[in-house]
Amino acid sequence: MNAMVDALWLIPALPLLAAGMGALTPRRGRRFAAGVAIAAMAGALVLSCLALRSALAAPSAHLFHNFRWFDLGNGVVELGWLLDPLSALMCVMVSLVGLLIFIFSLGYMEADENFARFFCFMSLFAAAMLGVVVANSLLLLFISWELVGLASYLLIGFWFHKPEAAAAAKKAFITTRIGDIGFLLGLVWLYDATGSLLLYDGGSGVLEAGVLGNLGTLTLASGLAVSTAISLLIFCGAAGKSGQFPLHVWLPDAMEGPTPVSALIHAATMVAAGVFLIARVFPLVSYDQVLTADPVHALTVVAFIGAITALLGAAIAVAQSDLKRVLAFSTISQLGYMMLALGVGSWVAAIFHLLTHAFFKALLFLAAGSVIHAAHHEQDIRRLGGLGRQMRTTYATFAVGMMALAGVPFLFSGFWSKEAILHAASEWGVSRLPLYAGLAAVVLTAFYMTRLLCEVFWGSPRSPEAAQAHENRGVITVPLVILAIGSVALGFLGTPAWPWLQSKLTGEAVPPHSLLEGGGLMMLSIVLVATGIGAGWALYGRRVRASADAADPFAAAAPGLFSFLGARMKLDELYAATLGRMNTFGAAFSDFLDRWVWGGAVGFLALLGEFTGSVNTEVDESGLNAGFNSFSERIRRLGRAYSGAQSGEAQGYLRTVAIAFVVLALLVLLGGSR
Amino acid sequence: MSHLQLCLAFSSVLFAVGLTGALARSNSILVLLGLELMLTAAIMNFIAFWRFGPSHAPATGVIFAVFAIAVAAAETAVGLALVISVYRHQRNIRLPEANRLRG
Questions:
Q1: Which of A150, A373, A630, B94 has its CA 20 to 30 A from that of A195?
Q2: ipTM
Q3: Are B103 and A644 within 8 A, CB to CB?
Q4: Distance to chain B for A620, nearest Cα, Å
Q5: pLDDT in tens, A64-77
Q6: Cβ contacts of A643 on chain B, cutoff 8 Å
Q7: Residue B25: left if φ>0, alpha if ψ -120 to 50, beta else—which one?
Q8: Closest to A400 measured CA to CA, from A389, A392, A265, A259
Q9: pLDDT tens per residue, range B52-93
């Protein structure tokens, strides 16, 4: 048991090692780099499963291993890792989904000349995420968190010769960085207030009752509790990584990376980190619930941001025409659901949805990758079509993923996890609005997924690329099948009738209750899913579009709304017009200050100097020069001789310094021996 | 060899590698890399003497190292800015060609 805790660091270390070895592999070492990466992920998966087994044996315990990193004055900086059902489950999910995506990449990236580099970055990405998951110190978590950001930058910009990819990588990095500043401030504040960044530390960790009790006594001048402020700052970081409403703009652009990267970002690693973070520090962010004097609770903000994101992402997804972009906006929407669940206090439902979503979203992205690979990188759904006949395995697995995401009742995992979230939202005492937003997003989700399925797989091919597409090899389809099985089976771990996951995560027995309890809500959401799928079928499935140029039925019905949603509600333009322009204005203002105010002052001083100089010259020329001239001439000649030593080559100087240093050192050494 | 000697030997090797890089490469970014390696070797020495030396005052070695790393970061920023401006002047970053300051 304890041996497992001590070995927990190996889970992120193995992929990290693989990344290091991949970095040293030359470009032609394709097999070696991929083999090492996949072997490391498989090793991490085995270790994760062992860790899960020992965590499930004692679900309420938080086993940790802390060690001192360094001390600064009286402060001690400690790091550590943590084994409990949450981290173990996340480890298994990340390494399993990661492994399948790695295997898929073998087929998908086979033609890329930078194959070895790709696996190096992918391993780094997985290692960073596993580091986030096992960290028992917010500092270690933050370090891994930033590594996730770095790896996402490298992978989104993997095809950096495309300007859009380079821009998307920059956008992702900078946008998440804005959130990370909040996170870092929160950490510093937390360390200042509690003197520790360890999560669990035998009574003195920041998630344990004693420290939280002390933190609860602190309030700001405005009446806001310090714990609320810290929680909101930490939520900034989570919102950036998880693509929540004001900071979601990077996620759709991240589609410029290779498709396996999108799958990894959207399913297992990057966007899951934010939700995981809030679930991990849930005792801290929910602590202000007991402080009745607090003007606003952190979780209320989380719930509303989540509700807005869920609705907004689903609405925009309706009008996208890029296969991967529809899925990207659906990820935003599903992350909104998870944040909503966290906000209404049910972090277990959020993690449940996170796990099921990881499987079906990885499935959807990989199936989309399979389509894109077969159709020679055609990913505009208007130019696809009719692929259901040519690509049967991809079609079947995509349909499973689509039904899981849409929440088709009973058989598919997405239904159960979404149901858990809606149920939690309906019991929230503060407001009903998040519930309504969630229900509205259910309809939209079912609608746009039906649209996607009909456009891509039904009808007849609408472009030469789609016409000659055929099913991919087993290395691509087998991961799809495994993920499809997971997308179905995982749902049964957390049904209301058998709440295994809930009781293991919380460490308390959750009594099973019959499906009839809260059955009204379930009936309502089944009706809503049916409405969404029915509307999608009526608009897109009954008469599949005939050619790539044919108008979208929805666009024909409401052109203004469709183009508004298609342009992503103009949010990017809004940011460019406000924040971007503010930045440009600031730069122009600084330029003005530099050029005219400071430049003017310096110019004035220069004029003054010039004037005194000219007075000086007069005095010099007429009075003092006579005797000096011949002497000066000799000095000048000497100077010219010496100036030959100044060759202008920086390395020459450095060489001289190095030789002189060696000579000095020899003198000292020899002198010492005498 | 004791731990201290091992550390010092390692940092000497690091320093030598850095010096060779700084002297032998003509690409100015690689020269900068060499300089960084030499700095790192010096920082290694701080840490080694603090850790294995007689005095274990908690902060001395680490504080030195942290400051030196901060200075190194600033230095790199300046160095890269210089590389960019050199590139703008001569359309490449070969250091031997950047000799306009010769006497």
A1: A150
A2: 0.77
A3: yes
A4: 27
A5: 888 888 777 777 88
A6: 103
A7: beta
A8: A392
A9: 877 767 677 788 888 999 999 999 999 999 999 999 988 888
